Amino acid sequence: MKNNSISIGKFEQGCINEDAVMARENIIAVSDGAGGGGLFAERWSRYLLEHLPLDPIKDVEELDAWIERIWEVFYNRCEADAREMGGMSLDKFYDEGSFATLVAVWRISKNKCQWMSFGDSVAFHYNYATHELEHSFGQIADFDKPPYLINCKDALFKDGFKSGTFHTNNQSRVFVASDALAHYILMMYEVAHREDFAQELGMAESNHSKNENYIKIAKAMKRIDFEKDVLGKLFNCIGHTTNFQRHIKSLIRKGRIAYDDYSLAMINVEIT
């Protein structure tokens, strides 16, 4: 069993990477801090992963109970920092708090992984024997919707919680990704199997959003070898930040991926 993770921020100088990523022996997770609202998004995402339970979060009540146990220490520290930043920052923190997504996978036995998600970070299971991709998300068009977010001070929206299991074998790859990378992975899989996902892709294109353009560009490709050109290239970059940056920059230039922070963590079952 081998665990790996990688995370890079936006490429402008001075940009803060608001993603947090974790890969331990039997747990992988990504939390995407949402800097569009509140303060300290990058700190909240890291804090969530630093305090992630060792056992799976099975339902929204367990998620809510866990947040209830950990939020106050974070809130008090950030309240003090916001006060030092001045009245406007303190008011903003009081009004909005801090936001982040969360996706996590726990390996609970040799052939079973339990996952949970809240927001648009995604857990995946790819089986190299069946060539099938399972994931924790809804339809690809749902990436155009505002994501559910965990706030450091506010009650959870219970509809945002999802959980499930992946049944694995020695042909499996289980991994998690933040939203832009997750959209790219799911999009490329569905375009590579467009005869099976024509309706879903059509719905996403009909939204007339930024993601419509990525899908059209992907559909214009002559051939997609999902295992080699998508998963293979991404997995080979884990542990090699420079290679990962080059690969992501190439995808941006080709118009296949949104501009964002990018995080990936993988539980790697060796193929025999």
Number of helix segments?
A: 8
- Order of strands, main sheet, comes to 1-12-11-7-8
Strand content: 15-25%
* CATH class descriptor: Alpha Beta
Distance between the amino and carboxyl termini: 13 Å
CATH superfamily: PPM-type phosphatase domain
Task: Tell me roughly what share of residues is in helical segments.
Answer: 25-40%
Cα gyration radius (Å) = 18 Å
> What is the 3D shape?
globular
- How many strands appear in the DSSP assignment? 12
Structural class: alpha+beta
CATH topology: Phosphatase 2c, domain 1
CATH architecture: 4-Layer Sandwich
Uncertain segments: none
Please explain how this structure is put together.
By secondary structure, this protein is an alpha+beta fold. It has helices at residues 41-50, 60-85, 87-96, 179-192, 198-205, 210-219, 226-237, 241-253, and strands spanning 2-8, 19-23, 27-32, 99-100, 102-109, 112-118, 122-127, 132-135, 150-151, 161-167, 172-177, 262-268. The chain has a single domain, classed as PPM-type phosphatase domain (Phosphatase 2c, domain 1), CATH 3.60.40. The protein has eight helices and twelve strands. A hairpin with a 2-residue loop joins β5 (102-109) and β6 (112-118). The two termini are 13 Å apart.
